[in-house]
Amino acid sequence: MSANRGITSHGDNNNFSNNAVGEHAHVSVAVPSHGTAHPNDAGAAEERTSAWDVGVVTILSEELRSVVDELKLQRHKEPGGLYFYRGEHASPQATVRIVATQSQSQGQRSTMAALENLRRHYEPRLWALVGVGGGIHDDHARIGNVIVSTDIVYYENRKINPRGDVRRRGEHRQAPAPVVHAVNAFFADHGTPARIAGQLSTHASEEFDVYPGVIGSGEAVITDRENEIRSYLTNYHEKVLAVDMEAGGLSQYWQENSVYGGINPGWIVIRGVSDNADEEKGHGHHELAARNAAHMLRRLLPYLC
Fold it and tell me: What residue ranges define each of the domains in the chain, with the CATH number in brackets?
């Protein structure tokens, strides 16, 4: 007597399913997977369909650490290898679900990639760019102050004429109306500037000022008080209070994301002033500026969500 250890097929259009071949063989029927959830990521499908309120992008490690500490976020690794920091913040109005990430590098392009990662994995209803920036307004942007911005001027577009003179062509974008109204409500309640106790232990006895204002954004690191970019920005809009290297990417991504099928999130930029974009620029005040900016994100959440 011989054992049957295979299948012999004669003819066309044969279809075999749920078959086992060989000794001690058995059939395992897999449930088809829908969506992007990884089989080892328990609850991944539920998380992707749940509402995430705020997606935070940071650039420097001091910025991410400040946001994580201020909002009590927990580290989470997605199956593809990306790290996010997630948690909930309770306020009298609602419980806000927050997810934060850090871009791979400085600049507009890496910021847009970080935003895409947040959209793909969490689809937050609001994007917040939180961290440090360079102040260019002597009255408002002293070190430690915070600029809350719903207006971005991207200054990199330019025309270089044959004689070498440069004509800059700025792009100005404003956040959606609900975000602007939320920021206006905060300053109506707290005054302009809002005066807040310092968040770094060494500055706890001091207050910092919080102003609404415009952020100038481009790829240049400015370390010269007489630089033509500073002159251009202050002439373009007298309320440009600070500069950074990422907000232009945020506003551009928001613009292009408007054709995406889902809801296009609002956005806000919160910059703690770590230097004055001059010859004294350095890293010595990053921690102070980042802590104050992260605190202001928390203070703004009841208005934004």
Answer: 52-304 (3.40.50.1580)
